């Protein structure tokens, strides 16, 4: 699972990887794979930056 308590640099790297893949796929004309990696970027960002640190109390 993705953990919002991980260091910031690691969280940014995890979000940047699918974002870079989405940009690459869109630039090569593969809309379907670009959409998949855009969704993965949204999931990773939501899990790492929008969740409460330490989980809900």
Defining traits:
57 residues, mainly alpha, 2 helices, transmembrane
Write a structural description.
The chain has 57 residues and is an all-alpha fold. It has one domain (8-50). Helix content is 68%, strand content 0%. It is built from two helices and no strands. The chain has helices at residues 8-27, 31-49. Helix 1 (8-27) runs antiparallel to helix 2 (31-49). The longest helix has 20 residues, at 8-27. The radius of gyration is 13 Å and the shape is elongated. The two termini are 18 Å apart. The mean pLDDT is 92. The chain crosses the membrane at residues 7-26, 32-52. Keywords: Membrane, Transmembrane, Transmembrane helix.
The poorly predicted ranges are: none
The helix count comes to: 2
Q: What overall geometry do the principal axes of the alpha carbons give?
A: elongated
Helical residues, percent: 55-70%
Order of helices and strands: HH
As for the number of domains, it is: 1
Rounded to an integer, what's the Rg over CA atoms?
13 Å
Keywords: Membrane, Transmembrane, Transmembrane helix
Transmembrane segments: 7-26, 32-52
What order do the helices and strands come in, and which of them pair?
Blueprint: H1 8-27, H2 31-49
Helix pairs in contact: 1-2
């Amino acid at each position: 699972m993705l953990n919002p308590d991980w260091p910031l640099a690691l969280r940014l790297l995890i979000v940047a990887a699918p974002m870079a893949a989405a940009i690459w796929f869109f630039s090569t004309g593969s809309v379907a794979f670009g959409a998949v990696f855009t969704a993965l970027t949204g999931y990773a960002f939501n899990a790492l930056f929008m969740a409460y640190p330490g989980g809900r109390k």
